[in-house]
Amino acid sequence: MKEKKKGIFSLILTLVVIAATFVVAILGIGPNKIGSIADVKLGLDLAGGVSITYEAVKENPTTQEMEDTFYKMQLRAQAFNSESAVYMEGDNRINVDIPDVTDANEVLEQLGDAGTIYFIYGQSAEGEVNLQYNAELEEYELTRPMEDIIAAGDVVIDGTCIENAEPLIQSGELNQTQYLVELKLNESGKSKFAAATTYAYQYYATGSVKNLIAIVYDGKVHSAPMVSAAITEGVATISGQADYDEAKQLASIIRIGALPLELKEVRSTVVGAKLGTEAIETSLLAGVIGFALVVLFMIVIYRIPGLADSLALCLYVTVIVFCLNLFNVTLTLYGIAGIILSIGMAVDANVIIFTRIREELGTGKTVRSSMKIGFDKALSAIVDGNVTTLIAALVLYFLGSGTIKGFAQTLAIGVILSMGTALFVTKFIMKVLYQAGFDAEKYYGIKKEGKTIPFTKHGIKFALLSGVLILIGVVALIVNKAGTGNILNYGLDFMGGTSTEISFPTEAPANQDLEALVQSTLGMSGEVVQVQGEAAAIVKTEVLNTEQKAELAKALAETYGVSEADITTTSISGTVSGEMKNDAVMAVVVATLCMMVYIWIRFKNIGFATSAVLALVHDVLVVLMVYAVSHISVGNAFIACMLTLVGYSINATIVVFDRIRENRNEMLKKDTLEDVVNKSISQTLTRSINTSLTTFYMVLTLSLFGVASIREFSIPLMAGIICGAYSSVCIAGTLWYFIAKRRKEQEETA
Questions:
Q1: Distance (Å, rounded) from C-alpha 412 to C-alpha 400?
Q2: What's the whole-number mean pLDDT along residues 255-282?
Q3: Which of 718, 710, 590, 733 is nearest to 655 (CA)?
Q4: pLDDT of residue 474
């Protein structure tokens, strides 16, 4: 009785803790909502905004040139939004993400502008004042537009006169450290600067703006130093910087203005704020419905363990929210898909454990003993399965790009947390429920030794079925090649071009009407694809420049009342699309090889690794068949789909292999290798079906309620889940049996 009271108290306390974390995840802590889901940083596909990738036109630009260009883009991006993110991509590309902008085309135009630095008179000889001091901001500002200053001839030198600028540290009077910028001018700038500084030096003692020569970049005054001497040799030092970083920053700004490095746009995305909001709403709806289906399924099938798993899942979801905040992960649309998928996969570890517990109860052990043994025996399969999925996520992160990296991040976080949740949280809750009085076998279910299905005897039939599916895929690829020139329906990511997704106020116009509008506005043809179930359409054209995007947006607004918030555009150059194709193949190959090596090491048997990889190749080919037959667009999401499939399928296969290894070690003399394989597959059959169902539920809700791009990801993934379950049950174990049998026969005849 004492233990029961303790259990009830622990259960109540556990429920309170879970409820508290759930409330914090929704509402956050304090007025700033720290830790809440509202505090999570959203990607551009959810928040709306502009993402653009530039590539240096110059071959092999220097590190200094790229660093200066990087800083230039930071300055420009911050001017639009302080939350902007700028990062290097490889050795010659810079990516700029600017959220929540109102005029996307203006942003694209200004970001791509070269920009020029100007040294201007504080006040010209004609008496025109160009500078005024803002005491509140403690900085100088222009008194009139830069265009007027240029027209008046008040520019001393521009970027074409600058040879270099470097930060400098030297000791001044009383050994005080001074942080300077050393400015070097070319022959063209030398004489101009000499004349200007001679003029300004006349007013050195007056404190007048006539004594100043201001440094202006992109219309902003970055420094306005006094002229303390006439500079006639083309080398000047600019003092007044507070520290080395400030001197380095000013030197970089000067170099930026003189930067000969030309940039070209290779990829851009503009997401309307309204479309981002819709993506969040539909994805969250899919997550809630899928979560409810999984919880209901687990409680009905597994009773008290299912309840424990459901409570652990609630905590699991809230912890994911905390991790997104803690690690400052940018949540993208595919990131939400990764979380939803990970919820389904999180159940997998618990299904393995619960199946083991039922098996132990079937042998006559007590509930307490069965729980302990069940967790212990399930450990190796859980660890191996999650590590292989983590390998897929890591490969996807390093070889993927853009929003797919967000998917990889959330999937990796989900894999790690799900393993910890299953091994510790679920175990603790089950112990508490047991102590609270749920200690009878009826609350857990008993799995008796079932009939062993002779899977190996049907190996030829399984091979024929798989062969037919793969053959259908090959035929579809050939037909596609003959009809369209491409074996698959390559999307924007793999073909290059511009995709414009439009959300209409009412019903979407007919395809021919939109095609005519594109032709009349841009003078080019465009392919129109209606978004099923929505008042939306996607227009695919060759790569559009900023002016063409603005013209199309204007025409859509005038003709159909579409606002900029209802338009999402994505542009990708042919160079980047070719790289994405290579990355897709590379990602699948690298992930498969890494998993093969891991399985080989863990199982100490090349047969397990070989059969697992062959089963994976089978799954990839079957899903490729789905893409070929259904004509689903093949793009960046294709990489995520394939790698998720690879990780998920190998997870299921490892559970079967783990049981084969266990039963093989315990086999009796009368048992044959075929008996062991058939028994192992039969024992794990229920687990394979149930865990596939829970993951399938989550992906199904994504396909039903998600936006168009997520449906293109989820539909092939559903086929992959079915195929992965089939291959782990019918292909992988049977393959290993034939490989092991063949190897044994060779050893006996040697």
A1: 14
A2: 73
A3: 733
A4: 94
If one counts every other C-beta atom within 10 angstroms of the C-beta of residue 664, the result is 15
By DSSP bridging, strand 155-158 and strand 162-171 are: unpaired
pTM higher than the cut 0.85: no
Residue type, 30: G
pLDDT of 730 > 90? The answer is yes
Residues 748, 750: Cα–Cα separation, whole Å: 6
Secondary structure of residue 750 in the 3-state scheme? coil
Cβ partners under 8 Å of residue 35, min gap 6? 24, 25, 28, 29, 321, 322, 325
Please report, in angstroms and rounded to a whole number, the separation of the first and last CA atoms in the chain.
67
What gap in Å lies between CA 693 and CA 710, rounded to an integer? 20
CB 96 within 8 A of CB 52: yes
* CB proximity list for 388: less than 8 A, separation 6 or greater: 595, 598, 599, 647, 650, 651, 654
- Quick one: tokens of 327? 């690690």
| Nearest by Cα to 655 from 628, 618, 684 | 684
The DSSP string of 624-671 is: HHHHHHHT--BSHHHHHHHHHHHHHHHHHHHHHHHHHHHHHHH--TT-
Amino acid 199: pLDDT: 92
Confidence of residue 581 (pLDDT cuts 50, 70, 90): low
CA distances from 243 to 137, 139, 220 (A): 19, 17, 21
Domains along the sequence of the chain with CATH? 53-111 (3.30.70.3400), 117-261 (3.30.1360), 272-478+576-749 (1.20.1640.10), 497-572 (3.30.70.3400)
Q: How far apart are CA 429 and CA 311, in angstroms?
A: 8
Under the banding of pLDDT at 50, 70 and 90, the label for residue 71 is: confident
| Structural contact between residues 413 and 328, judged by C-beta atoms closer than 8 angstroms | no
3 state DSSP class of 487: coil
**575: pLDDT confidence band, cut at 50, 70 and 90?**
low
Asked if residue 724 has pLDDT above 70, the reply is yes
Can you list the pairs that 429-432 forms with residues at least 24 positions away whose Cβ atoms lie under 8 Å? Answer: 429/14, 429/308, 429/311, 429/312, 430/304, 430/305, 430/308, 430/371, 431/371, 432/7, 432/10, 432/11, 432/14
Distance CA 604, CA 615 (A): 19
Report residue 291 as tokens: 């979560």
Exposure pattern of 340-355 as b/e (b: 16+ CB <10 Å)? Answer: bbbbbbbbbbbbbbbb
Per-residue confidence band for 447, with pLDDT thresholds at 50, 70 and 90: confident
Find out whether 48 and 275 touch, Cβ atoms under 8 Å.
Answer: yes
10 Å CB burial of residue 745 (0-12, 13-18, 19+) is: exposed
Instruction: Please state, in angstroms and as integers, the Cα–Cα distance from residue 613 to each residue in 243, 344, 469, 594, following that order.
Output: 58, 24, 18, 10
Q: Which amino acid is at 561?
A: G
Query: Position 237: which residue type?
Result: T
Give the CA dihedral 633, 634, 636, 641, nearest 10 degrees.
Answer: 100
pLDDT at 406 exceeding the cut of 80: no
Check if the beta carbon of residue 388 is closer than 8 Å to that of residue 345: no
Q: Which pLDDT value is given to residue 18? A: 87
